[in-house]
């Protein structure tokens, strides 16, 4: 399982076939279907991108692609935090632009490729970037307390955390990356491990500390503690 990183925005047309395994990366990945159907799994959720459909994969979200009959997509790898404000589905204005940008990539048109990432974001957003409202502040300490109190009740998902602070999962992932330099899953794992270490310091057995901090088993907690050490 590899971690992929790109130094800047990069626009391309890619052909997909058999799965090469799941991975995650530190940037947004925007996909618009051109031909065929791409099966996509993001953080355990199954999706399908057909021609004229699209999706925004947030930073840090582990995902896998497969197209059994083959598929072509316009793909943008971008570090622009503006994508946190975009919905996962493209607006109608995006699709005609995506078709043009795919042709520009095939023909190697440098100006279209250079300006394409910004134009694609502008078309994808439902409102102009300049009209966005001030962003919502996140009380990270309160959010951590809320998550830490739910390990024994249910599995805490990124969507739950995002909803708790009135953000979309993509927005929440971007804020987590911006403020801590971590993916949402890394932030959650840090909370779990910190809570488990406090419980162990209080004298609780490994099994009870694992249960209260959301680990699948005592051995999973022991391995996590060993890695941190």
Report on this structure.
- The protein has 229 residues and is of the alpha+beta class.
- It folds into 2 domains: 129 residues, Jelly Rolls (Sandwich), CATH 2.60.120; 89 residues, Arc Repressor Mutant, subunit A (Orthogonal Bundle), CATH 1.10.10.
- It is 41% helix and 20% strand.
- It is built from 8 helices and 9 strands.
- Strands 2-9-4-7 form a 4-stranded antiparallel beta sheet.
- Helix 1 packs antiparallel against helix 2 and helix 7 packs across helix 8.
- The two termini are 23 Å apart.
- The N terminus is likely disordered.
Spell out the key features of this protein:
229 residues; alpha+beta; Jelly Rolls; Arc Repressor Mutant, subunit A; four-stranded antiparallel β-sheet; three-stranded antiparallel β-sheet; 20% strand; disordered N terminus; Cupin 2 barrel domain-containing protein; DNA-binding; RmlC_Cupin_sf; RmlC-like_jellyroll; transcription
SS strand fraction: 15-25%
Structural class: alpha+beta
Number of strands: 9
Number of domains: 2
CATH topology of the largest domain: Jelly Rolls
Q: How many individual helices?
A: 8
> What is the CATH H-level superfamily of the largest domain?
Jelly Rolls
* CATH hierarchy: architecture of the largest domain: Sandwich
| Assembly level | single chain
What would you report as the Rg, rounded to the nearest angstrom? 20 Å
Keywords: DNA-binding, Transcription, Transcription regulation
InterPro entries: AraC_XylS_family_regulators, Cupin_2, HTH_AraC, RmlC-like_jellyroll, RmlC_Cupin_sf
Organism: Hydrogenophaga intermedia
Domain HTH araC/xylS-type: 141-229
């Amino acid at each position: 399982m590899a971690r992929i990183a790109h130094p800047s925005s990069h626009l391309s047309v890619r052909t997909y076939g058999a799965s090469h395994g799941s991975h995650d990366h530190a940037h947004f990945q925007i996909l618009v279907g051109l031909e065929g159907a791409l099966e996509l799994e993001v953080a355990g959720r199954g999706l399908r991108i057909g021609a004229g459909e699209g999706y925004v994969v947030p930073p840090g979200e582990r995902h896998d692609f497969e197209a059994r009959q083959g598929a072509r997509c316009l793909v943008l790898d971008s570090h622009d935090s503006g994508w946190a404000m975009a919905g996962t589905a493209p607006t109608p204005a995006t699709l005609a632009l995506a078709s043009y940008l795919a042709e520009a990539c095939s023909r190697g048109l440098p100006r279209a490729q250079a300006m394409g990432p910004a134009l694609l974001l502008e078309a994808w957003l439902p409102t102009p970037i300049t009209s966005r409202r001030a962003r919502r502040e996140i009380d990270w300490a309160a959010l951590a307390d809320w998550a830490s109190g739910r390990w024994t009740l249910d599995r805490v998902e990124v969507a739950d955390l995002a909803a708790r602070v009135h953000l979309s999962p993509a927005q929440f992932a971007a804020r987590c990356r911006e403020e801590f330099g971590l993916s949402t899953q890394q932030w959650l794992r840090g909370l779990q491990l910190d809570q488990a270490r406090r419980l162990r310091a209080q004298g609780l057995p490994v099994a009870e500390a694992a249960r209260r901090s959301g680990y699948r088993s005592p051995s999973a907690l022991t391995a996590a503690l060993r890695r941190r050490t």
